[in-house]
Specification:
- The chain is built from 5 helices and no strands.
- Helices cover 46% and strands 0% of the residues.
- The protein has 112 residues and is mostly helical.
- It starts with 14 loop residues before the first helix and ends in a 28-residue tail after the last helix.
- The longest helix has 21 residues.
């Protein structure tokens, strides 16, 4: 395939929006939270069964969550899972940074 054979279109930074999913911004936020949960479980070196006990979930639910099946999880529930893993959650509401309107985003104070 040559360069002239392909049409490259830059993404928006949100694959869910690029694919036309409704609620794309919230879905991206949930995906980022689940990635943090996965990172914390890996960082601790615990099994899914141990994570399940810590999180108050069944092991199959932890498995589904960490594989990306998190549609049924609310943002609040994901926040609670992160606090169960010892993380603080701060929610900051401020004026938008651009004229495009408000956005949801996650900013981590650390890499863990």
């Amino acid at each position: 395939m040559t360069t002239s054979d392909s049409n490259v279109e830059p993404g928006s930074g949100n694959v869910f929006a690029d694919l036309g999913h409704p609620g794309a911004e919230a879905h991206l936020l949930k995906a980022e939270l689940v990635a943090r949960i996965d990172g914390l479980v890996r960082q601790r070196g615990i099994t899914q069964s141990e994570a399940a006990r810590l999180l108050g979930l069944a092991q199959p639910d932890v498995s589904r969550l960490l594989r990306g099946d998190f549609r049924e999880y609310s943002l609040e529930r994901l926040f609670r899972l992160l606090t169960a893993l010892g993380r603080d959650i701060d929610i900051v509401i401020r004026p938008p940074r651009s004229t495009d309107g408000g956005r949801l985003r996650i900013a981590a104070a650390d890499t863990g």
